Amino acid sequence: MAPKLAVSRREFVKDAGGLLIGFSLADSAVLPRVLAAASPETITAPSPSRLDSWLRIDKEGIVHVFTGKPEIGMGVSTAYAQIVAEELDVPIDRVVLVMADTATTTNQGGVGGSTSIMLGSKPLRNAAANARYLLTQLASRRLGVPAEELEVADGIVFIKGSAKGDATKSVSYAELAGAGDLNDALKVSGDGFSLNVVGEGKPKDPSAYTVVGKPVPREDLPPKILGHFKYATDVRVPGMLHGRVIRPSGVGATFVSVDDSSAKAIPGYVKTVVKGNFVGVVAENEWAAIQAAKAVKVTWTAPIQAFPEQKDLYVYMRSAQVKASKETLKRGDAAAALSSAAKKVEASYEFPFQSHATMGPGCAVADVHTDGITTVWSGGQKPHDLQKGFAELLRVPIDTVRVVWVEDAGSYGRPGFEDAAADAVLLSEAAGKPVRVQWMREDMTAWGTKGPAVICDMSAALDAQGEATAVQFTSRAFSGGETHFRPGDAGNYLGAQLTGIPNTSGVDEFAQWGVESPPYAFQNVLAMAHVIPAFHDSASPLRTTHLRDPEGPATSFAVESFMDEIAAAAAADPIEFRLKHLTEPRAKAVLTAAAQKAVWDTRTSPKKGAPGGDIATGRGVGLSTRNGTYVATVAEVEVNRKTGAVCVTRFVCAHDCGLIINPEALRTTIEANLIQSLGRSLKEEVTFDRSNVTSVDWVTYPVARASDIPDRVEVVLINHPELPSSGAGEPSSRATAAAIANAVFDATGARVRQAPLTPARVKAALDGLRSA
Amino acid sequence: MSAASLKVNGRVHKVDVDPKCPLLYVLRDNLELNNPRFGCGVGQCGACTVLVDNHAVRSCQLTVASAVGKEIVTLEGLEIAGKPHPVQAAFIAEQTFQCGYCLNGWVMTTKALLDKNPSPSDAEIRNAFESLVCRCGSHVGIFAAVRRASQSAKRSA
User: Which 72-111 residues of chain B touch chain A by CB within 8 A?
Assistant: First the structure.
């Protein structure tokens, strides 16, 4: 794409003053107000009911798109540009996005649940379609012909059949947009993720698409690879200090005293900030801040022993009193079927706490003015929620806080970027200057939020013919929302909790089956989900929240492993077994497509008559659904019988997310999710002692590395232009662990029911076979 | 604090810093070269990689004092006459990376690898990259880009 898009969005906002021509000249307000040299008193978000809140065309014909959605590394910004270019019939390199600045973009709820295309693109598509309609109406008046006789290409409206470039028979969007006087009112529905607008102009029929559905290169990648891109970590503002945080000695430890005499010898050290149990340092440069955080001696009370020994985690979870329960699926009478079953299959699956462990530890810059405008630059996924939360934290009106999203390392949920931004707010308030905070690695891995540990107990009834007649699912898990995934209140943030603000917004989010799960049509089904209480209600390093698909990887590991266990008990091929119990055509289609691509060896597992020797090979499958997306993943593995090491040699993933916007960006997103979830399946497990998380770096929290990458990763995209787009990203993370565990079973006959499938766990399962 | 001369991307920069300060923070904060990135600060991820006398080095583990007198190259210094370096061109062509926060390490390590070994085997590629982290999991595209860059190096050799 043209270099236009290489301009960072922030630079655009800074430089664009005066250039913009809105559809309605009455509101040239938003940008100039933000950009005014004199500090405005308040900053009001644009109203979604106005077309020019979504889209403007400047006199060069550049289309400026305003969206509350950030880009978090999966190519959504390019997909949005495709959608707008398609509806407006402008070249894609003339579309520029302004993303997720609370002062200039509507509140679309930020990013979550892989819904940015599925939901977030809707108002952009509709706004663009309406703009095209209104501009064509204007052109009709200007050219004196009915709108039906007009066509649009490359941002030029022209009379059908006229010679290209005939100025008497054509007019550009740029010329038209300057005319103003357009009915720009849009009908608004929903809010947050579901915010949508509809105008008079209707979007194109997908059969007419020429840009949507094409593999357009991602606009953000060349500037990143060439080194021109600015991440949140690269934001610098005049007079900025550098901050680092000092966390308590363990969960529940409280502040006693501080001695910063050693820090005072460090050139550039400014001061230590203490607010309750929140402690941080600020310095004139980053190295001084890092050294000072080490030099400052803080005395804490002894931490409490809030956690069990790690080896007892699942025993603890089984014995913990349940906090909340929910029946998520009930069909027929599973209990009766189980009690009269000819054969019963029972198994329990365990999934550990995992860390977002973002590549870049949390980083943000805050410039706090409690008597004026506060600005925070952060890569958090939900900037409008941060605006609300920081206003509450600072006890100031919301329209005096501006959160400017700037892309950061991939976040995969609510990783702690929000907490780092709150740390910057607290330190800037105390220092009276702008403060940049970047967490150290241990702040991120040990003290960042966690994906919850989950236990799933499963049982199935088989009749005398070996047919599965009932399946029962019961989960016990920490909530997926002890820390609310929408960071919109002060108590949400770790730093704020340390200052004494309670976490009151957490919710019980269940590890559930039957909602967002493959639609297996067993006659009798019962799914129950139980949430157990947090270990500690405030400032715990094992506090849970959304990590790339809340509980999907854990519940899919259980259910999809169990499907194979029932298939084995019924002496059926794992794919044939699934197909037999599915009626949904799209679920069947991804399974069939994956099987075909993989040249699936149809037979029962485990593999019989395999040659002896140290290395055993096998294949396994997992099916997942999420927000209307269907994914089937086949894994091929080599298992070292001596060491228990599992090597995934091949993935085949068939993926159906309805209408595909950008197949190339979709493919790379799926590949990345397969590899990340491979690491989560084989390696990732947060370690802890009675008071602390002991995963502090990449050695104590290992993730997928070069040696773990399969030789072959093949993605089969199934496009459904007639269906709306659903999500991508999370859905392809779900099935991986089960596909691998099923392949290990196929190779060796050993069933591993605890993730991650470390060599020790696989070896123990193999040893179990021998002793059995 | 003391004055030091650093030769970065062909230019000499005078800085007044703690000689024990890791090179990473001086590149970022004093010279505003943003691409060496903080990932772990303990040499485990490679996000801060720079070339020092043509070797891929973790700038979080190298003091300013020990970088004096060396030829330092950052990602910003790879472009040749305003054109992407062939290694960068290969990564762009493969559409590698999700967030790209780690890409500095992969691109710089690829450059160092191919300078020494223009035709690495798949095993050599994996070995060279085992000490790098890409948390998003973009490895498939990374390996493809390295192979593409290797091919283009062979063609131009």
Answer: 74-76, 78-79, 84, 88, 91-92, 95-104, 107
Interface residue B130 vs chain A (CB under 8 A): yes
Residue A308 Cα distances to A23, A252, A756, B4, B12, angstroms: 61, 15, 19, 51, 56
- A303-342: pLDDT as tens digits: 999 999 999 999 999 999 999 999 999 999 999 999 999 9
Q: Taking residues A576-603, what's their average pLDDT?
A: 98
Q: Are residues A61 and A113 in the same domain?
A: yes
Q: Do residues A350 and A492 share a domain?
A: yes
For chain A, the average pLDDT equals 93
Determine, yes or no, domain membership for A543: no
pTM to 2 decimal places: 0.95
**Domain count within chain A:** 4
**Overall size of chain B counted in residues:** 157
Q: Which residues of A509-538 are buried (b: 16+ CB within 10 A; e: fewer)?
A: bbbbbbebbbebebbbbbbbbbbbebbbeb
Place of tokens 């650093």: B6
CB contact under 8 A, A706 and B28: no
A vs B: CB pairs below 8 A: 169
Query: Mean pLDDT of all residues in chain B?
Result: 96
The 3-state DSSP class for residue A164 equals coil
Q: How many CB atoms lie within 10 A of CB A691?
A: 21
Here the CATH number for the domain that contains residue B135 is 1.10.150.120
Question: B32, B56, B77 — which closes off a domain?
Answer: B77
Q: Give A452→chain B minimum CA distance, Å.
A: 19
In a domain? residue A618: yes
Which residues between 260 and 289 in chain A have a beta carbon less than 8 angstroms from any beta carbon of chain B?
Answer: 267, 285-287
Residues B72 and B100 in one domain: no
> Does the CB of B123 have a partner CB in chain A at under 8 Å?
no
What is the domain range of residue B72?
A: 2-77
Cα A141 to Cα A370: distance, rounded to the nearest angstrom: 51
Ramachandran sector of residue A393 (left: φ over 0; alpha: ψ -120 to 50; beta: rest)? alpha
A713 with B76: Cβ contact below 8 A: no
B115 inside 8 A of chain A by CB: no
The complex's ipTM works out to 0.98
**Residues from chain B contacting residue A358 (CB–CB below 8 Å):** 101, 135
Are B147 and B117 part of one and the same domain?
yes
Confidence bin at A10 (pLDDT 50/70/90):
very low
Which residues does chain A have within 8 Å of residue B44's beta carbon, measured at their own beta carbons? 441, 697-699
